[in-house]
């Protein structure tokens, strides 16, 4: 492809995927709210409620507090949404090839995942409010907590793929193209289940949802790092949460559940892409329901010091146990092959 | 020279230009959404004072969260570890040299015995 063709393709796909990410992300939030309401014996808002909320926020006043640093306060929500949208470009969506899939791998995605959180921290510190400052501090501590278990999951999967002879094990297209469950033996299956549990526990923290929402904690910090945000800035932070929900679901699907409908049922190419995209969205909804909705309805909030212990001690150990089982599985598989 | 050839470390890939281009395009889309929103507010009114649950705002120094508190949750969660590590940092060079010699000796034993 020519240089102009490459640039044009990246621009076109960025526009399409961004629009898809914003709409699908908001619908995911709507589904989350509806399911949570039904579990609490409420009717709940309509699925399009997040769209209504965004429209309402866009017509409300956008207050910049007198203690705030205006340029940082206003740019933080923009950076949060932009960085969330860009991550989506690296992750396969069904059988569609991810637009930037060949320009970055899972390690890059891990780094990019920190940018929306850092934007929220910067926005919190720029608010000039003690509640927001404490919220920003908690966000940083939570981030330090969950990055380690997340890294164990990524390294574990990529290492096992490498041990199985898969070329470019960190590329998401390689991971999605070689479903990990078919590569490992019984020990490896147990290891993968442990790593899946770790990723499921990291997801609510990435999304600042219960039980890891200490940085916002309405009952203690009155909204924490978002306390001073209103109007269009708050709308953008809501959009960022929506897109990140889709990103985390898509990431879990790409790593652990990459199968496409077209692999099982024969269908024309055009129909297959649409069917695979719908199947992908169904898997994302299922992942979100289990990791976010079910957990937030059934649990209370952790204290900030408990968050670190949960991630650095309990789930880091569970992740390391999963990694060791994958290594044992690989060693046993190699030994069996030699014998 | 291919501008969109990814940097490769053997296992990792990263193309800053592709990321930058996508970021600029996404930023334009987000900026257009942001611009559609209401920009006005009542400057210099109670609206712009920090929200402290309705309490009057104390002096700035009184509500400032100090840097030493930033990692409170982290330090508190790993208290057992820091209770051991912090007293070991005495600031006395002799102690550090002793640690250095001890750790080196332990490493040599591990290397000689197990490798």
Structure at a glance:
The complex is a heterodimer of chains A (339) and B (115). Chain A is an all-alpha fold and 339 residues long.
Protein topology:
The complex is a heterodimer of chains A (339) and B (115).
Chain A: H1 3-39, H2 49-59, H3 70-88, H4 106-126, H5 130-163, H6 172-177, H7 186-206, H8 218-221, H9 231-256, H10 269-298, H11 304-338
Helix pairs in contact in A: 1-9, 1-10, 2-9, 3-4, 3-9, 4-5, 5-7, 5-11, 7-9, 7-10, 7-11, 9-10
Chain B: E1 7-8, E2 13-14, H1 16-36, H2 60-63, H3 72-77, H4 79-88, H5 93-114
Antiparallel strand pairs in B: 1-2
Structure overview:
The complex is a heterodimer of chains A (339) and B (115). Chain A has 339 residues and is mostly helical. Chain A is built from eleven helices and no strands. Chain A starts with a helix and ends with a helix. The model of chain A has no long low-confidence stretch (mean pLDDT 86). Chain B is built from five helices and two strands; from the N terminus they run E-E-H-H-H-H-H. The longest helix of chain B is centred in the C-terminal third of the chain and has 22 residues, at 93-114. Chains A and B meet through helix 1, helix 2, helix 3, helix 5 and helix 9 of A and strand 2, helix 1 and helix 3 of B.
């Amino acid at each position: 492809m020519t240089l102009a063709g490459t640039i044009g393709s990246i621009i076109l796909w960025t526009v399409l995927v961004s629009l898809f990410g914003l709409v699908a992300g908001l619908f995911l939030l709507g589904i989350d709210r509806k399911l949570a309401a039904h579990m609490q014996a409420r009717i709940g808002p309509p699925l399009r409620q997040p769209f209504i909320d965004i429209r309402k926020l866009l017509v409300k006043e956008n207050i910049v507090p007198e203690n705030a640093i205006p340029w940082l306060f206003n740019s933080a929500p923009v950076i949060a949404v932009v960085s969330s949208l860009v991550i989506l470009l690296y992750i396969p969506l069904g059988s569609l090839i991810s637009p930037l899939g060949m320009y970055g791998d899972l390690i890059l995605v891990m780094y990019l995942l920190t940018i929306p959180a850092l934007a929220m921290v910067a926005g919190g510190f720029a608010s000039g409010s003690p509640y927001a400052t404490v919220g920003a501090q908690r966000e940083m501590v939570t981030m330090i907590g969950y990055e380690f278990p997340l890294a164990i999951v990524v390294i574990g999967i990529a290492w096992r793929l490498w041990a199985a002879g898969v070329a470019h094990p960190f590329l998401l297209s390689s991971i999605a193209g070689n479903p990990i469950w078919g590569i490992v033996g019984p020990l490896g299956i147990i290891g993968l289940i442990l790593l899946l549990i770790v990723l499921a526990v990291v997801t609510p923290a990435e999304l600042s949802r219960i039980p890891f929402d200490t940085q916002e904690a309405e009952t203690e910090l009155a909204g924490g790092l978002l306390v001073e945000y209103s109007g269009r800035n708050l709308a953008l932070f809501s959009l960022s949460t929506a897109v990140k929900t889709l990103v985390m679901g898509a990431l879990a699907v790409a790593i652990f559940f990459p199968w496409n409908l077209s692999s099982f049922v024969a269908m024309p190419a055009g129909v297959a892409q649409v069917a695979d995209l719908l199947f992908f969205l169904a898997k994302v909804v299922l992942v979100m329901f289990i990791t976010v909705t079910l957990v937030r309805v059934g649990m209370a909030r952790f204290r900030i010091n408990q968050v670190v212990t949960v991630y650095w001690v309990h789930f880091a150990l569970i992740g390391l146990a999963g990694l060791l089982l994958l290594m044992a599985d690989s060693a046993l598989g190699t030994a069996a092959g030699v014998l | 020279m291919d501008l969109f050839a990814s940097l490769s470390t053997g296992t990792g890939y990263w193309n800053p230009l592709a990321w930058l281009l996508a970021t600029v395009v996404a930023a334009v889309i987000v900026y257009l959404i942001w611009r559609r929103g209401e920009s006005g507010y009542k400057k210099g009114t109670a609206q712009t004072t920090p929200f402290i649950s309705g309490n009057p705002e104390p002096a700035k120094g009184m509500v400032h969260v100090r840097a030493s508190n930033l990692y409170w949750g982290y330090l508190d969660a790993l208290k057992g570890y820091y209770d051991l590590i912090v007293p070991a940092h005495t600031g006395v060079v002799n102690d550090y040299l002793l640690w250095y010699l001890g750790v080196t000796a332990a490493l040599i034993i591990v290397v000689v015995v197990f490798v």
